[in-house]
Structure formats: C-alpha cells, structure tokens
Specification:
With 479 residues, this protein is an alpha+beta fold. It is built from 17 helices and 18 strands. It has four domains: 91 residues, 2-Layer Sandwich (Uridine Diphospho-n-acetylenolpyruvylglucosamine Reductase, domain 2), CATH 3.30.43.10; 119 residues, 2-Layer Sandwich (Uridine Diphospho-n-acetylenolpyruvylglucosamine Reductase, domain 3), CATH 3.30.465.10; 114 residues, Alpha-Beta Plaits (2-Layer Sandwich); 78 residues, Alpha-Beta Plaits, CATH 3.30.70.2740.
C-alpha cells in the first residue's frame, strides 16, 4: 500500500462513505472554476459534517503532508477554489456544513456554518423580520464560507460594507488542526489583535472557516428603485453625492452602466425594454429603502429628491419603478451585463477599484487608452460607483482567433492593472486574487505588504498545505 493509499484509507475511516469520495464523475463538476479558466485534479473530495471532523481531517493531512483546497459553492471568479493539475491535493467541500446554529432577532445576528448558501441565509433572516444585507448574482450557490474567504461585496456595499463589516465572529480550523473559536461577538474587546480579520479575505490560505456569526439588519418594508440617464460618469458622481445628502442612510444602491452595456443586455434579453426613451451616455440605477418606521414618506421623498436633481441639472431623464415587478426588471438589466457579454464574444474582465472620487476621470482616461492601443476592442466600465469598484471589461474584436485571450487578452490585463496601480487603486476589488491574479499581485503589490503577507502565511501554515498556489506565493524562509 502506497503512502497515498494509506492516507485515503485513514481519511475514509474518519469521514465515512458520505464524507469521502474518489468517484471521478462526482468530483468532476467541482474541479473546474466557474469561469472555466482553470481545471485541476484531486486525490479525493472530502465532505466533513462537523467542525470536529474538519479539525481531525486537517491533522491527518498535516501528518501525511497532503495539501488541502477548501471549496464552498465553487463560484470563485479568480480560480481560488480550484486545485492544481498535479492532483496531489484533497478537495475539501464544506457544503454538508450548512446549518444555522442560532438566529437571534433581538441581538440581530445569526451564527451559521460555512456551507450555508447565501439564499438560505436570506430566507431564514426574512422569517424573523430581518435580513442579511449582502447580495449578489450567485446567491443561490455562493456559501457563507466562500463569501468570507473572498471578503465578498455586492450591490449593498455602499450602505452596509463588504463581508468584513458584517462578520461579528468566526470559528476557524488552523493548519495544525487546532480550532480558533471566536463566535461570540463583543462590542468592545481590546485583548490584542482582531484575529478574525486575518482570515476574512485570506482565501483559505491561513485557515478553514467553519462557522461565522453575522450581523443582521431590519427587513426592508419598502423600497424605491429609480433608473436615471445622465450625460457623463462625472455627472453620475455628482448625482451620487446629491443623493447621499438627500437620502442619507436610506440610500442602499447606486450602480452605473454606459449605453453600450445596456444595448448589449437588450440584445441578449429579447423581452427586456429600455427603462428610458432614447439613449443616454450613462445610466444610473438607484435604490432607496426604508424599514417599517420610515415606510410612509419614502415614495414622496424620492420624488422630491429626483425633482431636486432635475432642478440642479444633474440628470437628463429618470423613471421611478411603478411596481415591485418593474423594480426587479430594472435590476435584471444590471445583473445581466456579464452573461450578455459572454454571449456576445470573448472578453477580459477586470474587477478593480480606484479612489471613489477619481473613478470618473479614471474611466474617461482608461477606456480610450485601451481601445487605441488594441484597435477593434471595446472597453466598457460599469459597477458600484459609490465604493469605487468598477468592472472594467475589454471585448475582443469581432472574429478574433481562439487564442486571443492568451495573447492580446493577457497583455490588455497587464496594461489595465498598470493603469489601476498608477491611479492608486487595486487590481482586485471584490473577487479575490486566487490563482488568476497571483502573479500580478506579486508584480504590482507593495513589497512591504507582500512581505508581511508571506510572513503571516509561513507562521500559520509553515508547510504550505492550505490552498497552496493561491493569493501569495510562499517562498523559502529568508527569501
């Protein structure tokens, strides 16, 4: 019996027949990332049911030197949950650990396991008159653990922040199998480092998150969704500042997209209709919400806010959704940009951020620069104007060769990342680094910050067994 066979036999004895599989057909859907860019192999797929089993499994992996690739809903946008082609790693699925351990309406928090799907958390919170204020297109597959591992954002970051702002406590299994349990939240706690922040956004490279205590907020009693047309992204930024003053904390979403994005979506969705008559250089999707206490005047307040924006010359046209169905139709247009582009042809997609106040001038400079350097391409920018996060996509020229992504596409991404760095921004705003951007982070990241990250990685995972090859490359000690 080989060392690998011994390890697998011990793992199967530990987890039982439901907890470990070597069946190629069962593993296959989980070995390719969501975008289809990376495909790997695995020794087996482990599906522990409890934190105790996770801890015991990690101790076993440490004893045998077996790398571990943790995975939630396999919806990573940067290949962060895909094993390498070497096939020497164990794929660790947390999907069986999907319980809500406690949900407290008075404390407004929920303690849930890492494999809980975001949509299920939304439903559970709704049953007690609360909500978890983070949503995204993949809410039906993304898990709590994956959202924490990537510090996920979404359309509500403007008001509520990313996962870092919503995680009150964590339970994490470390590389040696010990369990760091910090699920009980305290408003004030000055006992040294806030250790949970080390694991949020670490992409499973420092520890395996098995449970979390999350902040809940009052349910939305009413919302108003507005679609507006503006002359420029700079004007959209001015409109945002006006709406922040006029609506305050009730302003929950502020998304922007250019006319060319809307046109692509309308071509992709034959039943969809443009919200406004005629084209506009930029479109803005605004959402204002109210809990029960502020429900009555919300619609009137938004009408007055839009009238004030018109009077100030901040927009060219606008419509307030007349029903919940129309509000959902507005959001569907925004959420369909990525699939519409995929149907349109190959594109390199960049999840980037720059300082919020510089977003309009960055887009105005970057779009023509990229299109001029690579004739025939089409560069589009859309996303969350309020937090400086823009999805900057560059669509290949019509009829491009199959290897366009590996050639021009890679060169374009390098130039986009150079531009972002020169503007004081980040090459990853909410999708993580994974394996897709690891080399770019090493090339462009601050040397001092990268050195600290590598030191932390070596301290917590000296054998480099937790999600190796992701986020940062661990060099030999002293290098």
């Amino acid at each position: 019996m080989t060392a690998r066979d011994t390890f697998l036999a011990e793992a199967e004895a530990l987890l039982g027949p439901r907890g470990l599989t070597r069946d190629a057909g069962l593993m296959a859907p989980w070995l390719t990332d969501w975008r289809g860019r990376f495909t790997g192999r695995a020794l087996a797929m482990a599906s522990p049911a409890t934190t105790r089993e996770v801890a015991a499994l990690i101790r076993l992996c440490a004893a045998h030197g077996v790398p571990i690739v943790p995975q939630g809903g396999n919806s990573s946008m940067s290949g962060g949950a895909t094993p390498s082609p070497q096939g020497d790693a164990l794929l660790l699925s947390l999907r069986r650990m999907n319980a809500i351990r406690e949900i407290d309406s008075e404390a407004r928090r929920a303690t849930c396991e890492a494999g809980l799907v975001l949509q299920s958390l939304h439903e559970a919170a709704g049953e007690i008159g609360l909500r978890f204020p983070l949503t995204l297109g993949g809410k039906g597959s993304a898990t709590v653990g994956g959202l924490i591992a990537t510090n996920a954002g979404g359309s509500q970051v403007l008001r509520h922040g990313p996962m870092r702002a919503l995680v009150l406590g964590l339970e994490t299994v470390l590389a040696d199998g010990s369990v760091l349990s910090q699920l009980t939240p305290l408003k004030k706690d000055n006992r040294g480092f806030d250790l949970k922040q080390l694991f949020i956004g670490s992409e499973g490279t420092l520890g395996i998150v098995t449970a979390a205590t999350l902040r809940l907020v009052p349910a939305v009693a009413d919302r108003v969704v507005i679609w507006a047309g503006v002359a420029s992204l700079a004007m959209a930024r001015t409109l945002l500042l006006y709406c922040e003053d006029a609506a305050g904390q009730a302003l929950e979403g502020f998304e922007v997209l250019p006319q060319r994005c809307l046109a692509t979506v309308l071509d992709h969705l034959p039943a969809a209709r443009a919200p406004l008559a005629g084209p506009h250089a930029w479109h803005v999707l605004i959402e204002v919400v109210a809990d029960a206490a502020g429900r009555e005047p919300l619609n009137e307040h938004c009408e007055a806010m839009m009238a004030g924006a018109f009077a100030r010359g901040l927009l060219n046209d606008a419509v307030i959704a007349a029903s919940e169905a129309q509000a959902e139709a507005f959001w569907l247009l925004r959420e369909s940009i990525a699939p519409a582009e995929r149907a349109h042809g190959p594109a390199v997609q960049h999840d980037i951020s720059v300082p919020v106040e510089r977003m309009p001038e960055f887009v105005a400079a970057a779009v023509p620069a990229i299109e001029a350097a690579w004739p025939g391409t089409e560069a589009v920018a859309f996303g969350h104007l309020g937090d400086g996060n823009v999805h900057f996509h560059v669509i290949a020229p019509p009829g491009s060769a199959p290897d366009w992504m590996a050639g021009d596409g890679k060169a374009i991404s390098r130039e986009v990342h150079d531009l972002v760095t020169r503007w004081g921004g980040s090459i990853s705003a909410e999708h993580g680094i994974g394996q897709l951007k690891r080399e770019e982070l090493a090339r462009l990241g601050d040397p001092a910050a990268l050195d600290i990250m590598r030191r932390i990685k070596r301290a917590l995972d000296p054998a480099d067994l937790l999600n190796p090859g992701k986020l940062v490359q661990v060099f030999a000690p002293g290098v």
